[in-house]
């Protein structure tokens, strides 16, 4: 079993910054992609940023140039640096990890989610 624990959310003024952290723990050999998704009230959950095990990144158009995703494989952690925050960034942010299941035979990838951390951007 794998657990993802997030931290770093909070209330910030427009133009401010926050840094989200997520650490994975439990039984696994490695982690493939990790990412951050967000869900605002009344909207579908959407991808904000992802990062591969090799460091390749992908961002939603709405956050490009403002958010930076990174990871520390030694710590099984992923981070999201959020700068120039806007009110429309207000959402619950969820950490995500794609982790190969232990065992022999065909590879099975499992998806894990953190509990979510609230980010509120308001003056």
Quick structural gist:
With 123 residues, the protein is mainly beta. Helix content is 0%, strand content 53%.
What is the makeup of the main sheet? 7 strands, mixed
Spatial separation of the terminal alpha carbons: 40 Å
| Mean pLDDT over the residues | 96
Please bin the fraction of helical residues.
Answer: under 10%
**Class based on secondary structure composition and strand pairing:** mainly beta
**Morphology:** elongated
Order of helices and strands: EEEEEEEEEEE
Strand segment count? 11
Please give the count of helices: 0
- Quaternary organisation: single chain
- Please state roughly what percent of the residues sit in beta strands, choosing from under 5%, 5-15%, 15-25%, 25-35%, 35-45% or over 45%: over 45%
Task: Return Rg in Å.
Answer: 15 Å
Low-pLDDT parts are none
